[in-house]
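S1.2 Input.
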Amino acid sequence: TLSSSELAAVKGSYDFVGLNVYSRFHVAFDLKLPRQLFARIFVPSHVPQGDSGVEQPYGEAYPQAITYAVERAARLGAPMYILENGVPDREDRIRPWLISEAVGQLGQLLRRGFDVRGYFHWTLVDNFEWSEGWRLRFGLVSLDPETQERIMRPSARLYASIAQSNGVVPDHQPEYRLTPPECPVACLQPATGELSIADGP
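S1.3 Output.
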């Protein structure tokens, strides 16, 4: 435990605040779970989901979490970076939508004056997750672990285009959308255009 003087010395000594933002928890009161403080954690079936489905902690693709996290972390008074944000999505069904929405959230935060200096998508290339192995595919680039073959997913081209234009431009928003605003993965429809889902593996 740190003493009061140690806490005072540490306060404000950091260079930036790094945020890993993925999803949100839905919690319901459940009398059958006293050892979990009567809390049942779940992901509703009607929300956009990655490959992990309703499992935690990546079940729901929820880009609005970036806004909530930044608003809360801003109280620390340091520049902020989104160090991780993504969704496990082998077929790239909702990742392009998530990227576009996440960067759109960041644009709104910047216009409101929040000091967010960077966004890092998790992850560039499919990686070996310590608790999941190769099961969950987070990469902008797909990786075959046996052959080491790498193939760019459509979301990689979208992300490159966003980076080249220094942010989301209006033409990116309709490329991938949710119709209606809340629906399961089956509702996601790619729009026509150069970033069509057909370009992927």
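S1.4 Remarks. Residues 20 and 84 are 4 Å apart (CA to CA).
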